[in-house]
Automatic annotation (TrEMBL):
SnoaL-like domain mapped to chain residues: 9-134
Superkingdom classification of source: Bacteria
Cross-referenced Pfam families: SnoaL_3
Record's protein name: 3-dehydroquinate dehydratase
Gene3D superfamilies in UniProt: 3.10.450.50
Transmembrane portions of the chain: none
Originating organism: Streptomyces cirratus
């Protein structure tokens, strides 16, 4: 039984987040198209081109000791050879170990993401990733206090 396009896109989207969690740069690199790609990490400018995008992931991986993604609100749409995935990344991460060898403090963050995939002869590949932070109520209150 063959997989549907939606199942194939869900699988590669999951592989993208698993590669990040495992710090597997080679696996992550293989998921991206070879040609013009783009990426926006929360709070970063737009990154364009394979070299610039993959360098950003190498940098993130080298400075992140632990990261786990819990994806919610995932929606997949496929139109021809293009697929769009939107989801909420519930991220739990920790920085590099401190002097005592302990993992840095764990931080939770909510990010809404849009991942665009293109069908290739090798299967679906990531074309663009855009992550935007979700402001929580406590952050909104902090901003109001500064007036």
């Amino acid at each position: 039984m063959s997989r549907t396009d939606i199942e194939a896109v869900e699988e590669i989207n999951t592989a993208f987040y698993e590669a990040m969690e495992q710090g597997d740069f080679d696996a992550l690199s293989a998921l991206w198209l070879e040609d013009e790609i783009s990426c926006v990490h929360p709070g970063w400018p737009v990154l364009s081109g394979r070299g610039e995008v993959l360098r950003s992931y190498a940098l993130i991986m080298s400075h992140t000791e632990y990261i786990q993604f819990f994806l919610t609100d995932t929606k997949v749409a496929v139109l021809g050879d293009t697929a769009l995935v939107t989801c909420t990344e519930n991220i739990l991460s920790g920085g590099p170990a401190e002097d005592g060898g302990e993992l840095g403090p764990l931080v939770g963050q909510l990010v809404v993401a849009t991942n665009v995939f293109r069908r290739t002869s090798e299967g679906w590949r990531l074309w663009s990733h855009h992550g935007s932070p979700v402001l929580t109520d406590s952050e909104d209150e902090d901003e109001e206090d500064t007036d």
